[in-house]
UniProtKB/TrEMBL annotation:
Residues 329-583 form the Sulfotransferase domain. Pfam families: Sulfotransfer_1, Translin. CDD domains: TRAX (cd14820). It comes from Brassica campestris. Belongs to the sulfotransferase 1 family. This is Sulfotransferase. PANTHER family: TRANSLIN AND TRANSLIN ASSOCIATED PROTEIN X. Its EC number is 2.8.2.-. One of its GO terms (cellular component) is cytoplasm. One of its GO terms (molecular function) is sulfotransferase activity. InterPro entries: P-loop_NTPase, Sulfotransferase_dom, Translin_C, Translin_fam, Translin_N, Translin_sf. Transmembrane segments: none annotated.
């Protein structure tokens, strides 16, 4: 590949090769008109050759960069569609094996014939090794999908030659065929072990312990063989880091198989759901049963984990999230307490970061036809419903929401450069909103639960996600310690200065507004009046069964006065003052 420096070196060589004029002596100064014309023509020739050289190199580099962009796009398409194949294979069970594998096989073939063919068309006939880093991620993901599929079909590993042979029919016979190299094959193979680990845990949950044990032996063998290869690799930096992750996958499978072998098949349904994915392993059941618990409001029981109170379902989602979620530096995570402006913030952030992809003025914006909770996934809720959900399938930058405390966030979120937008609300307004939300969702369960008892539990921190004050202070201190990672905003600020706060969030996320852009269009689209009037936010249910209209009540500040007596409001105020103390954090009423 021509670099800018090499291009300048070639230009410099041409300059040295150009005719040079000898130094003039005094008696040579007087020149005839003809001699001056010859000198001028010679100079013009040199300048012309330099311009031609620069023009050629500029054309080459421009064409090369355009090709690189097309190759990157093709690689991303291969990655995305290969992940879909992997996700399809994860649906495999003893009852649907033929159906699932047939669909996965067709999807894998489509990846080759549509997306891989486009990549090969770009690269054939060129020095494609120069662009390896541009297409390597897609190739590795394809290797992972192809080997994962082959293992589930036959229990064997696809070799590099077997994979490359499937690509040969896509090549132009007159040109050098693009073949996957050994390094990309091994890197893809390393990622395969992570998928096999997830499949093994899932099969144990379904009672297919023998299949999980076969996976364990297979992953052990891959790890053992690669331990012999990696030290001999020259370009092995990525591989060495992947070997550490692979070892963790082996350990997780071995621990799960050992646990079942020693304790027997200890599974319990989660909240009465008999779906295979909602069964807990014995070790998780033991963990939950050992936790402090209280009779909950809205639910029969809440459990204290890492200092926070959760329902059993959300606790399972949090545990899965902690184990499996891998944050990316480009991720945007919205963190809130329940009923603290989550729906509004989801809408604002979605419209904000996608404003060029989905112009607000277009008339067909996704927020006009889709509920915000379907556009921005709730992480622990998704992991509870679908433990094998692959968040890497989300479009970049990924926008997600959680109620998880900072202490309990997955380690990858804390260690990455992802952005966290935290929004909190005056605790009295938040409590009242949650109170009405609960009465709408579970009228029978809350009918005999007096509000005085609910306020008492709230002040003690014993409500879903509580204590409220600890949750807020963790992110408050983190925002002061690391302001480039955590942006702390309040619901009251957003209500009072929505446009300014949207601009502030945009700057924080690195997608600030230009002078010509109109912020008011996003503010209007995402206003309570606009969203609550849409049919998509008034009818139907979310996948978790909650009525969609339950998320839109009043959307105002100071509404607690209509529900709380003076004594109950004072109880929350006293607790707030006691908990926040000298933190410097104040709430507007």
């Amino acid at each position: 590949m021509w670099s800018c420096s090499s291009a300048f070196q070639r230009v410099a060589s041409l300059m040295f090769m150009a005719p040079k004029l000898k130094p003039q002596r005094p008696h040579q100064i007087a020149e005839t008109g003809a001699e001056q014309l010859v000198k001028k023509a010679r100079t013009m020739t040199t300048e012309s050759s330099m311009k031609d050289a620069f023009s050629q190199y500029a054309d080459y580099l421009n064409n090369f960069n355009e090709k690189r962009e097309r190759v990157v796009k093709a690689s991303r398409d291969i990655t995305m569609n290969s992940k879909k194949v992997i996700f399809q294979v994860h649906r495999l069970s003893k009852d649907n094996k033929d159906e699932v594998l047939e669909k996965a096989g067709k999807d894998l073939e489509a990846v080759r014939e549509q997306h891989f063919a486009r990549l090969m068309k770009e690269l054939q006939g060129t020095d494609f090794w120069k662009l390896r880093r541009a297409y390597s991620p897609g190739v590795q993901e394809y290797v992972e999908a192809a080997t994962f599929y082959k293992f589930c079909v036959s229990g064997t590993l696809s070799t590099l030659d077997e994979i490359n042979s499937t690509l040969l029919p896509l090549s132009d016979p007159s040109l050098e065929a693009l073949q996957i190299n050994i390094l990309d094959y091994i890197l893809g193979l390393a990622d395969l072990t992570g998928e096999l680990m997830r499949m093994a845990i899932g099969r144990i949950s379904d009672g297919e312990v023998e299949f999980a044990q076969r996976i364990c032996q297979f992953v052990r063998q891959i790890h053992r063989e690669l331990l012999l290869v990696v030290p001999q690799m020259d370009d092995s930096y990525d591989m060495k880091s992947k070997m550490e992750v692979m070892l963790q996958s082996v350990i997780k499978i071995e621990n799960a198989c050992f646990s079942v072998h020693v304790r027997g098949s200890e599974y319990i349904p989660l909240l009465g759901d008999d779906a295979p994915t909602s069964f807990l392993l014995g070790e998780t059941r033991d963990l939950i049963s050992s936790l402090p618990s209280e009779k909950g409001w809205l639910v029969s029981q809440i459990y204290q984990f890492q200092g926070r109170w959760h329902t059993e379902a959300l606790l399972q989602g949090i545990l899965t999230c902690q184990k499996h979620f891998e944050a990316k530096d480009s991720d945007i995570i919205l963190v809130t307490n329940p009923k603290s402006g989550t729906t509004w913030l989801k809408s604002l952030l979605f419209a904000l970061i996608n404003r060029h992809k989905f112009p607000v003025s277009s008339g067909d914006h996704p927020l006009l036809v889709t509920n915000p909770h379907l556009l921005v996934p709730f992480m622990e809720g998704v992991y509870y419903e679908s433990p094998d959900f692959d968040f890497s399938l989300l479009p970049f930058p990924r926008l997600m929401n959680t109620h998880i405390s900072h202490l309990s966030l997955p380690e990858s979120v804390k260690s990455s450069s992802c952005k966290i937008v935290y929004c909190c609300r005056n605790p009295k307004d938040m409590f009242v909103s949650l109170w009405h939300f609960g009465k709408k969702l579970a009228p029978q369960e809350t009918a005999d639960y007096p509000i005085e008892k609910a306020v008492e539990a709230f002040c003690q921190g014993k409500f879903i996600g509580g204590p409220f004050w600890d949750h807020v202070l963790e992110y408050w201190y983190e925002s002061r310690k690391n302001p480039n990672k955590v942006l702390f905003v309040t619901y009251e600020e957003l209500k009072k200065q929505t446009g300014d706060m949207v601009k502030r969030m945009a700057e924080f996320l690195g997608c600030g507004f230009t002078a010509e852009e109109e912020v008011s269009e996003i503010v209007k689209l995402c206003s309570f009046e606009s969203l609550s009037s849409l049919e998509v936010n008034r009818q139907g249910k979310l996948p978790n069964g909650i009525e969609i209209n339950a998320f839109f009540r009043k959307g105002e500040t100071g509404g607690w006065r209509d529900t709380l007596s003076e004594s109950l409001a004072d109880a929350i105020d006293r607790t707030t003052e006691e908990k926040f103390g000298s933190s410097g954090l104040k709430f507007a009423c």
